[in-house]
DNA sequence: GAATTTTTGATGTACGTAAATCAGAAATTT
DNA sequence: AAATTTCTGATTTACGTACATCAAAAATTC
């Protein structure tokens, strides 16, 4: 059996109360005694039974996820994963809530962050909008002792404790690399459909993509970026216009959330090389019909669970194992699509 | 706060003892009373606090992982993940142990399974060797009430409770599909390097690969399978021989664990399209230098944690959520390689 | 050496569940 | 209606930790 606090008390020759004082950093222990206890802990290899500790503490960790509202399928997927995690995380004494804010609205995001701090939550996860007032709000939360992680899109120099998301430059490079390989020596320019260049993750993906295309031995032109605002209708018209004006178009990289419009514009044109982001109902269907050739995906479930782990660790003052919290970039083609639309693993 | 057993007792108008009897399927409860309790559970939305329950039970779950010995990097990775999971799973009252057996040795595997059953473990995870005596041993374990999951390579008709691993036919199809796209209309045959055709997962991968190649509009020859027995030296010589005798070779699909030999044989030939399985030190390095173009990977950490969850659920008589336990097939190219060699997430 | 402060011990309660015992109530059978 | 069986209630202990209280011991100061 694992050693308990009683075993420590016995081998250290002190009372249970003293062990408790050492373990929980309570005052009133001489240095000598503390050392004795710590030695006993080390020799016995004691590790606190977190389940029992949490039970005794009956502490709950209210965590808030601030997510963009609207019909962005990826964000809705994130929200679904939060709910799913909330269902399972009751045992871990975590209480999750979702606060929707208008997309790209810095003021609303600031209000939501300040509100969460006022509510005394133990942690905040937010999809950051790249604005100085948001960085200031995150700074205030951090100063108030509330850990903050940025989700999906980062905000450097904001005092956020951690970023949960993929390396978006690498994502862009991956898209460029696949595009190059799939096209081979087929001629023609490629187009890029983004949401907005004011969003950091979109900018980073574009940078990576352009860099990889530029490095290729086959020179290939990249048309000016189409900014569809992640809106289905606008994306549809932009892509349609591009198709009409560029008959020799070879491929499209859709790095934002405008895939519904993209797929609508392409109809049944399977001759183009199309690479998109995030596995949703639309992209999945388009992969299966051959309209889209590859989908790059960040697993919403993994991100949510990573955010929860990080926030809990921060709330407890524990270290975060960076390597363990790295979010992978998944590549999906028609043949390795996961089975269900609601696939996920709790791994 | 979450409802507790006391709340159920109150709203159902019964005693704590009766609630306990219903919750733990103990005898001595009339159908009417049981229904009352279950109604209370439903209306209150009670969920058992597993942490408290495990604490009270002070039950431990000894689980055994039976893995092939030897220097197969993927198997060693699996073992490392078991150790890592064991470190974290102390809180979940799971005790993990690894039993190494000679690779492809059915008799040794049978002995290990029977030994685990004799040791009264609560669950067995084993990399199955495709032999009738192994199926029989698994059947004995199952009959003795010990749940068994097959890991990586399945064994149908054996009475195993669950299979933890990827869909290997889909893996082969993915490899074929990528190979076709990467090669485009470049002519030349492709070679296949396998470990052994007597292993089920290798056969399945080959089937998927051949089917996809055959479906392609561009006719492409596949050379006879090279069986390298997952041995570096044998694989090296087989691939070298193939390269010498087939100057117009366009690509190689390595579906087993012979990648060290494969990479050695290819030296610095980056002109071939090479697709391999499992992200190890060798395949990672070869991806980075361009010798290998894509690596298909099953995440050892995910598999181990899935196996643990499934075995615990089976041991407790709980249902397994199949969708949650599906293992994904990762595609890695140079650009989306995860950062560290010991990358992993506990998600 | 007395008075004070600091450190330690002893003890109890709590968290939510499991599991056992024993008495009493209700249902069933005779 | 009595005897029996089946069901239910009340109560207790335990799991490993957290946390509080009060007394006792040790160290420190005056």
Automatic annotation (TrEMBL), chains A, B:
<protein>
    <submittedName>
        <fullName>LacI family DNA-binding transcriptional regulator</fullName>
    </submittedName>
</protein>
<keyword id="KW-0805">Transcription regulation</keyword>
<dbReference type="GO" id="GO:0003677">
    <property type="term" value="F:DNA binding"/>
</dbReference>
<keyword id="KW-0804">Transcription</keyword>
<keyword id="KW-0238">DNA-binding</keyword>
<dbReference type="Pfam" id="PF00356">
    <property type="entry name" value="LacI"/>
</dbReference>
<feature type="domain" description="HTH lacI-type">
    <location>
        <begin position="3"/>
        <end position="57"/>
    </location>
</feature>
<dbReference type="InterPro" id="IPR010982">
    <property type="entry name" value="Lambda_DNA-bd_dom_sf"/>
</dbReference>
<dbReference type="InterPro" id="IPR028082">
    <property type="entry name" value="Peripla_BP_I"/>
</dbReference>
<dbReference type="InterPro" id="IPR000843">
    <property type="entry name" value="HTH_LacI"/>
</dbReference>
<dbReference type="InterPro" id="IPR025997">
    <property type="entry name" value="SBP_2_dom"/>
</dbReference>
<dbReference type="Pfam" id="PF13407">
    <property type="entry name" value="Peripla_BP_4"/>
</dbReference>
